[in-house]
Structure formats: C-alpha cells, structure tokens
Amino acid sequence: MNPTLTREFSARDFRDCLGQFATGVTIVTSRAADGTRVGLTANSFNSVSLDPPLVLWSLSKKAGSVPAFTAGSHYAINVLAADQIELARRFASKEVADRFAGVAFLEGVGGVPILAGCAAWFECANRRQYDEGDHILFVGQVERCGLARDGGAGAAAKTPLIYHGGRYFTELPLE
C-alpha cells in the first residue's frame, strides 16, 4: 500500500505524523534568576555533536518557564527511566504547583537539579538559542553527564521511558 501524498495538511495531521517517531522522555531542569527550581517534561531532545559534546532540545514560546531557560547559564536534561512515568506526568502537568515537592535530586552545575533515578543525565551550559517558529531551540554544551545502571556498576543500563503516538511505552528488545 502506497501512502497518499497531499500538498495540504492540518496542524493535527502534522502532529499525528510527528507522533509516529518514538522518542525518549526527558525532564529539563534549571533555576530561575531568583533561585526557584524549574522543570518540564520534553521529548524534543537529541544529540548534535560529539566534539564538542552538544545536545539540542526545544521549548514552546508559550511556556511559562521560557525566561528561566533563556536567561539561565545552565540546565540539565534528565533522561527518564521506565519506572519514572509518574514523574513525567507530574512535570508535564500545568496543575502541579510545585513539581519538585518530594522529588529527590542533587544539585549540578549552576545549581540545576539532577533528578534521582534517571537513566542518564546531561549537565549543560546554555550555549546557543534559536528562535524558530513557535519554539526556541536550545543548544547545550555538555559539561558533565552520567549513566545510571540497574544493580550498580557493570550491570545493564536502566530501561528507558519511551513516548510514541501520545502514549508512554517501555523498551521491548527485538533481539
């Protein structure tokens, strides 16, 4: 069966098509100028360069945390493990007043929160920002990163949380 090609599509069509690209789930954290911790769930994360180590993520211009991320010197990208689905929902919700209440974390570079139990994390200097469409693209220079493992050193990496088609999934090995 061949896909139907059309010249016109709606914003919903575009979003549905993007949803077919499975991604990991992250929580990006930082500190506002007044020291307040900020964080949000994002699946718009990918690597840019190994040398220098650069990553990219994007944030809607409508997000209330835009000032904290655009003005801040650092942020952390916390890659969520499969057992952190409730954390993903909490940091995605506009209903939660204090997203960090009761959440275990360490302070990283610039005081940014590194969430406990994540599969991996990247502590980034806020290197560049690009105003594109309805989002701001952030390029971060990775200053430190870490990988969590189930059962400690030498054990397998933690199972990641995956987002696809508007739903959360866990890894299913094919081999």
UniProtKB/TrEMBL annotation:
Its EC number is 1.-.-.-. InterPro entries: Flavin_Rdtase-like_dom, NADH-dep_flavin_reductase, Split_barrel_FMN-bd. Keywords: Oxidoreductase. Residues 18-170 form the Flavin reductase like domain. The keyword Nucleotide-binding does not apply. It is an enzyme of class 1 (oxidoreductase). Coiled coil: none annotated. It comes from the Bacteria. It holds the Pfam family Flavin_Reduct. One of its GO terms (molecular function) is oxidoreductase activity. Belongs to the non-flavoprotein flavin reductase family. This is Flavin reductase family protein. It comes from Piscinibacterium candidicorallinum. The lineage of its organism: Bacteria, Pseudomonadati, Pseudomonadota, Betaproteobacteria, Burkholderiales.
